[in-house]
Design a protein that fits this description.
- By secondary structure, the chain is an alpha/beta fold.
- It has a single domain, classed as NAD(P)-binding Rossmann-like Domain (Rossmann fold, 3-Layer(aba) Sandwich).
- About 45% of the residues lie in helices and about 15% in strands.
- It has helices at about 15-25, 40-50, 65-80, 105-135, 155-175, 200-215, 225-235, and strands at about 5-10, 30-35, 55-60, 85-90, 135-140, 180-185, 245-250.
- Strands 3-2-1-4-5-6-7 form a seven-stranded parallel β-sheet, sandwiched between helices.
- It is globular.
- The protein starts with 6 loop residues before the first strand and ends in a 12-residue tail after the last strand.
- About 45% of the residues are buried.
- Bound molecules: NADP nicotinamide-adenine-dinucleotide phosphate.
- NADP nicotinamide-adenine-dinucleotide phosphate binds near residues 12, 18, 90, 192 and 194.
């Protein structure tokens, strides 16, 4: 068991990558707080799965873009479990928009609110408890889009993830003296519901097929591929790694076209 008796808070854990991370952590011996903002039933299903592993788990509702809700969520987790060893900032949204000059104030505010401010609010609420105990692992789910090499049909999403990568490095430096590791993961294309935003089922399948061909491994990523990286970063095996971005994309060398 690589996370025996650790307490982990995973945001956006009702489905997709967050769900896989929460289940993997539970299977490895952690007690898990499963955050969601809308999908209560799905979050409760994840909780029940973790309880079956013999661990404790709770579903905690909070829109991560709302600081008051985040503070309340963290208080609830501390009250229930007494500590937080691992925070995974996974909750994220996208906003499909092929018009690079056409992003609205609403698009910017919603996407930055969840992806960037949500990440910051959670760290702001959790880090003081980690500082007190001189122990913590913070894992931010960024994106290949945040490195600026995969150009998708959105405007605010990629900059939000670029900012998460920058925040990861700054926080790693500032929190390092307290034995807190802060790292980020940049997933490539992973088969989850987020791909359906602004796309039909057929369009999603076509996208998955096309991007699989762009990877060295010639396949699409699955949520478990990212959960495995998160497990490494949450475990003590990564104690000397901080401020890093781990890319898990199946080996995407030719980001923009087949023909260069
Ligand atoms: P997903 O299936 O759409 O899951 C998103 C999760 O975030 C859901 O559990 C959702 O729960 C939660 N969420 C959304 N808004 C929230 C909010 N304001 N507060 C709290 N929770 C919220 O997408 P996913 O692919 O697993 O995405 C997880 C992370 O991976 C995101 O940060 C995404 O940007 C990143 N990522 C994904 C890919 C990919 O190809 N799939 C690639 C790179 C990066 P509710 O329904 O309860 O809101």
């Amino acid at each position: 068991m690589r996370l025996k008796d650790k307490v982990c808070l995973v945001t956006g854990a009702s489905r997709g990558i967050g769900r896989a991370i929460a289940l993997t952590f539970g299977r490895e011996g952690a007690d898990v707080a499963v955050n969601y903002s809308k999908s209560r039933e799905k979050a409760e299903e994840v909780v029940n799965e973790i309880i079956k592993f013999g661990r404790r788990a709770i579903a905690v509702k909070a829109d991560v873009s709302n600081k008051e809700e985040v503070d309340k969520m963290v208080e609830t987790v501390i009250k229930e479990f007494g500590k937080i060893d691992v925070l995974v900032n996974n909750a994220g949204i996208t906003w499909r928009n092929p018009d690079i000059l056409g992003a609205t104030k609403e698009e910017w505010e919603k996407v930055l609110g969840v992806n960037l401010l949500g990440t910051y609010y959670c760290i702001q609420a959790v880090a003081p408890y980690m500082i007190k105990r001189r122990y913590g692992k913070i894992i931010n789910i960024a994106s290949l889009a945040g490195i600026g090499v995969s150009i998708g049909e959105e405007v605010a999403y990629a900059p939000s993830k670029a900012a998460v990568i920058n925040l990861t490095k700054r926080l790693a430096y500032k929190l390092g003296p307290y034995n807190i590791n802060v790292n980020a993961i940049a997933p490539g294309l992973i088969r989850t519901e987020i791909l359906s935003v602004g796309r039909s089922k057929e369009e999603v399948e076509k996208l998955l097929e096309e991007v699989a061909k762009l990877t060295a491994l010639r396949r699409t990523g699955e949520p478990q591929d990212i959960a495995n990286v998160a497990l490494f970063l949450a475990s003590d095996e990564s104690n000397f790694i901080t401020g890093q971005l781990i890319v898990a994309d199946g080996g995407r060398f030719n980001f923009l076209s087949h023909s260069l």
